[in-house]
C-alpha cells in the first residue's frame, strides 16, 4: 500500500504538467515514432530510456492512458518495459506525446529480447499457459511440457483493425484471432493492446496480444 501510494504521489506532478500543457498553445508535432524501452520517474517527469539509445525521452500523457496503467501495475522494484508510439515535439526532439500503448509489463526480457524489432505479433494466455510469437517467416507456439511447434501461417487483415492468422501443417490446424481491445494478463498484470483467441485442433484458448516491432498499427 505504501509503495503504491508513493507511485501515485509521484505521478501528481505529471498530471499537473499535463494540465499546464493543455492550457497553452500546443507544440508543433513531428511524425509518428515507435519506441520500446524502460520507464523511470525523475524530477517529476516520466522518462523513457529507449532500447539501445543513450538519450532519454520525456513522455507526455496524450490520450494513451499511460499514467493510469503505470499506477495500476505499481512499483515492485523491477523496471517497467513499455512499447508505445507517439509524436515528438518538432522543436524538442527529446519530448514525445504518447498516442498509443502496445505493451506494458514488469516481467519478461524487455530490451534484451533479440527478436524485439523482428516480431510481427506476440500472444499469450494462462490456464493453460501458452505463448505464440510470429515473425515474417513463421510462428512458434510454446506450451509447458511440450516441444515448441513451428509452423508457416497465412495472415488476413479484418475490418476494425483485427487480424486472423491460420496454419494447417504437420496434421495440425491452428487459428489465431486478435482484436484491438485493452487486455490485462490475469497472472502478471501486463497490458497489451489486443485480445486474442487461439483455436488449436478444436481447443479454444484465450489471452492477450500485441503487434511486434516489425508491424505498425
Q: Indicate the overall shape.
A: globular
Mean pLDDT: 84
pLDDT < 50 runs, ≥5 residues: 1-25
Q: What's the CATH architecture of the largest domain? A: Beta Barrel
CATH level 1 class label of the largest domain: Mainly Beta
What does this 3D model show about the protein?
- The protein is built from two helices and 14 strands.
- The protein is mainly beta and 217 residues long.
- It folds into two domains: 2-105, OB fold (Dihydrolipoamide Acetyltransferase, E2P) (Beta Barrel); 114-211.
- This is Lipoprotein.
- It comes from Pseudomonas mangrovi.
Helix and strand arrangement:
Elements: H1 2-23, E1 29-42, E2 45-50, E3 57-60, H2 66-73, E4 80-89, E5 92-105, E6 121-125, E7 130-135, E8 138-142, E9 149-151, E10 154-158, E11 162-169, E12 172-184, E13 191-200, E14 203-211
Parallel strand pairs: 3-5
Antiparallel strand pairs: 1-2, 1-4, 2-3, 4-5, 5-13, 6-7, 6-14, 7-8, 8-9, 10-11, 11-12, 12-13, 13-14
Task: Give a quick summary of the entry.
The chain has 217 residues and is mainly β. 14% of the residues lie in helices and 52% in strands.
